[in-house]
Amino acid sequence: MEIDYIRDFAMYTAIFGIMSFVWFGWAQEAPKKSWRKYIGTASVIALITGMAGVYLSVANWNQPSTLTDNDSLMTYIIVFLVGNDYSCYRCHCNIPYEKT
């Protein structure tokens, strides 16, 4: 995958770094004793990566993004709204759904 925009790369780094940190945090709940140091090390690396991504995202906030192009932004919005509408309709969480 080739990334054309530094801002997009920084956001990917921030999102996946923080999510990895959260995932490794869950893994620390009850690991085998021999795994604790590896999971802890991975958690620290994920946190550092996520924080670096947040810093780079803020530092490059005014740079162009893939979504700067109006066609790409419109496609993203349509996919997000249609996907979100469909997933709420198919949800089995017993919340009444009224299509507006």
Description:
By secondary structure, the protein is mostly helical. It has one domain. 66% of the residues lie in helices and 0% in strands. Helix 1 runs antiparallel to helix 2 (36-59). The longest helix has 24 residues, at 36-59. The radius of gyration is 19 Å and the shape is elongated. The mean pLDDT is 83.
Order of helices and strands: HHH
Helix fraction bin: 55-70%
Number of domains: 1
Mean pLDDT: 83
Integer-rounded radius of gyration = 19 Å
Topology of this protein?
Elements: H1 6-27, H2 36-59, H3 70-89
Helix pairs in contact: 1-2
Keywords:
single chain, 100 residues, mainly alpha
What can be said about this structure in brief?
The protein has 3 helices and no strands. It has 100 residues and is mainly alpha-helical.
